[in-house]
Specification:
Elements lengths: L1 H16 L13 E5 L6 H9 L1 H4 L4 E5 L3 H9 L5 E5 L1 H8 L4 E6 L6 E4 L17 H15 L4 E4 L5 H13 L10 E4 L2 H10 L4 E4 L3 H8 L4 E4 L1 H4 L6 E6 L4 H23 L1 H13 L5 H11 L11 H13 L16 H7 L1
Parallel strand pairs: 1-2, 1-3, 6-7, 6-8
Antiparallel strand pairs: 3-10, 4-10, 5-8, 5-9
Helix pairs in contact: 1-11, 2-11, 2-12, 9-13, 11-12, 11-15, 12-13
């Protein structure tokens, strides 16, 4: 572990030597990065907690938002310079004339569907994956027959990534033609979805870590109905996007920030325990203990992936699905959203 940490440090020093990271004397004006308070934003918390940005001469200010639409509004209005959250809304930002590029991913397959009560009956405990599609369809059918109603599933508002993925899973992976004949989808914000699930107001919810670990700790009978991979292989999660990365005023720091972000993502994947205090400070709010956060990070380690090329195809699939559902008027060129050059430079 010590040798790997030393290697990561050496890579950053090399980046400084080759001019990829600015010296403190070259410090830019404040760089405002909007983020959603979820585990997918952990690379930002590592950068902040380790003090890497300051060491590289960057003044990075983290701006918290409670939903993707809020962050997108800030991005469109020019109130933030970068963004760590879901990828799909960025396509619409580009459609409205915003020059924003995804330069790295933060994580993949973040979102899962968790069930409780009658909707969880028959699902084996302890499994990281959900039942087979045929088994899930049988669960929905049995629930409707026994409960005389449709199961209520909490997600975020229509057009959000959680909502789109839930509908994609139900229709494309499970084969249900009409979602409203299978489940009642309740659109709420991130915290409300977790609270609704814990309170029993809904039968299932689209959640991500650390919420998944929290609810499984508090509700031992909760079960994974569909893992992130079950919902969609290479499911696009949080990304690092930069506004006008080639503009002179942003080019001065875009490569540096991307290099630090990739370094932080690598640490999360290889040494998740080292990130616990930083993520706990950002997300715990005094309400989560270190063991819960440690478990959440360890279970997510394999999903901390920085290569933006990994999600290009899945983003295309989700956008095509949104168009087919009438959520979008037309598809935008997905390739134009991605700039893999900064990631490739960061990996050298």
């Amino acid at each position: 572990m010590v040798m790997k940490r030393a290697l990561l440090k050496m890579l950053t020093l090399t980046a400084v030597a080759f001019g990829w990271i600015a010296s403190p004397s070259q410090a830019a004006e404040s760089i405002r990065i909007g983020y959603i308070p979820v585990l997918g934003s952990s690379a930002l918390f590592v950068i902040d907690g380790e003090g890497w940005a300051k060491q590289a001469g960057l003044d990075v200010q983290l701006v918290r938002f409670t939903s993707g639409p809020q962050a997108i509004q800030a991005l469109v209005s020019g109130r933030i310079d970068g963004y760590v959250a879901g990828v799909l809304p960025l396509l619409q930002a580009r459609a409205h004339g915003v020059d924003v590029k995804v330069v790295a991913t933060a994580s993949i397959e973040e979102l899962s569907v968790i069930a409780r009560g009658a909707l969880a009956d028959g699902i084996k405990p302890g499994s990281a994956s959900g039942p087979t599609p045929d088994a899930v369809k049988a669960i929905f059918a049995r629930f409707k027959q026994d409960q005389k109603r449709l199961p209520r599933l909490a997600a975020q508002p229509a057009g959000s990534v959680p909502d789109t993925l839930l509908r994609y899973w139900l229709q494309k992976q499970l084969g249900f033609e009409q979602v409203n004949t299978v489940a009642s989808i309740v659109g709420v914000d991130i915290d409300a979805a977790q609270q609704a699930f814990l309170a029993g107001a809904v039968d299932g919810a689209v959640l991500r870590e650390p919420a998944l670990t929290v609810v499984k700790t508090r509700l031992p009978d909760a079960r994974i109905l569909a893992s992130g991979h079950d919902m969609m292989p290479d499911q696009p999660g949080s990304v690092l996007a930069i506004v006008k990365p080639d503009a002179p005023e942003h080019k001065a720091w875009a490569a540096t920030l991307t290099t630090l972000f990739v370094r932080a993502t690598t640490l999360l994947a290889q040494h998740p325990d080292d990130a616990v205090p930083f993520v706990q400070k950002a997300l715990g709010g005094g309400m989560l203990n270190d063991d819960v956060m440690k478990t959440a990070l360890e279970q997510s380690a394999s999903r901390f992936v920085s290569d933006p090329a990994r999600i290009v195809e899945s983003v295309k699939q989700l956008q095509e699905f949104e168009v087919s559902q009438g959520l979008l008027r037309k598809a935008e060129p997905v390739g134009d959203l991605f700039d893999t050059g900064l990631w490739q430079q960061a990996k050298q």
